[in-house]
Amino acid sequence: MILSKFVDELPIPPILKPRWKDKVHTYYEVNMTEFKQSLHSELNETTVWGYEGNYPGPTIEVESGEKVLIKWINNLPENHILPIDYTVHGAHVDVPEVRTVVHVHGASVESESDGYPEAWFTKGFKQVGPFFKKEVYQYDNNQQSVTQWYHDHALGITRLNVYAGLAGFYLIRDKQERLLNLPCGDYEIPLMIQDRSFHKNGALYYPNQPDKPIKGLETSIVPEFFGETILVNGKVWPHLDVEPRKYRFRILNGSNTRFYRIKLDSEQLIYQIGTDSGLMEYPIGIKKITLAPAERADVIIDFSNLEGKNIIMKNDAPAPFPDGDPANAVGIVMEFRISLPLTSIDTSVIPAYMVPFPKINEQLASKIRYLTLNDNMDKYGREFMLLDNKQWDAPITENPKLGSTEVWCLINLTTDTHPIHVHLIDFQVIDRRPFDVDKYNKEGVIHYNGPAIPSEPQEQGGKDTVRANPQQVTRIIMNFGPYTGRYVWHCHILEHEDYEMMRPYIVIP
Predict the structure, then answer these.
(1) Which pLDDT tens digit goes with each residue over 152-169?
(2) Which domain holds residue 486?
(3) Which PANTHER family match (predicted)?
(4) Statement to judge: residues 167 and 205 lie in one domain
(5) Domain assignment of residue 34, yes or no
(6) What is the SS3 assignment for 341?
């Protein structure tokens, strides 16, 4: 089914209004429901799941330091719209088919409000998971201005719940950001990029069997899933009409598995001003931005002097990444049409300097952990991935002390790049270094066969998700806090996360 490109306008998610606000707290309620939405004008309306009747959900905007309470409410039907795989941990037949728990990705938050995968709940909180603690989550937002996002995190069905539509933006703002005179208001737009496939009737398509079907087994776990179309903010290949001026875009890769390597067909520079964890020290001008699932880039695109032109945002990331078929890239993301008259003189700037970015000193690390990313086969002959060769239920082995600094060396023994996300904290990427995988597999020793590669210019800032490339050791450094308790770290390819590539960790007092 071939859908026309650039026929639908880019939707911009609404800003969610709080239920009430007093001197101490701001309170929101967010309902998850099933509804129909037009994802492309040539398709029948698609049944999706969303927050507050929107896919993607409304944008939640808060101030740095604002104490926010959110009651996430599951009002979804009892049956899933996508095929469940009961052979996956956490999704066996003894748990309700539809269950949700919300994680604000990038949030520094108490563990009871982090959206732990086994803290799920059903409609009306009738049934809850073993780690469910409270109905109303608290977010202290003790971070500088940053682009975060919220999405479902229920054990064993995260890939299905997010694919069904459960995702939205969560933005923290602060005074420093306002002083920088960045493009704002109508000229600041979030872009959630995702891929989807459809049945002829407009319904979402998700495979219910791997490529080599397993007889007698109803299964939907696949090592990766790539949709045939690209959606931005819930529209397939949309267009955005802009004025000839600077715009700020907060770009998120919200796909399950697909990586994006984005560029503009005008060959102009994209000015990156922020990473996952907020503003960078200095902006950088780059032609291409690579985003793994869950990575964000805060950018400014200057459309000045381009009146009447159309500019296409393209993608050339192979799938799977980095060594998959470039033909699987789906080369078009969206179109910008510089077709609107300039409403006022553009006085916004691309600042020369934004915020200090103090590097964490490696000498401060009290512990260095060596953690492998592994590829395995299950009893049905299906591929599944592990962290440190341990399954979800294995005893917890990562237990950093509150306030301590650690270096984690991610040893990738697989053929894929894995976006590794650590909850609670921001980290810094130190470097990546190639090593001999065969030698490691035989002898268990890291034999480096090339020099260390420093972190990329687009990673020069705080991160919460890092691309751990095949045949490389990726080193990240982080300080654990300000909360104690149980969190998770995992691969953010959702198909991997759901099938064992996730581990709990505990910050101990």
Answers:
(1) 999 999 999 999 999 999
(2) 362-507
(3) BILIRUBIN OXIDASE, CUPREDOXIN SUPERFAMILY PROTEIN
(4) no
(5) yes
(6) coil
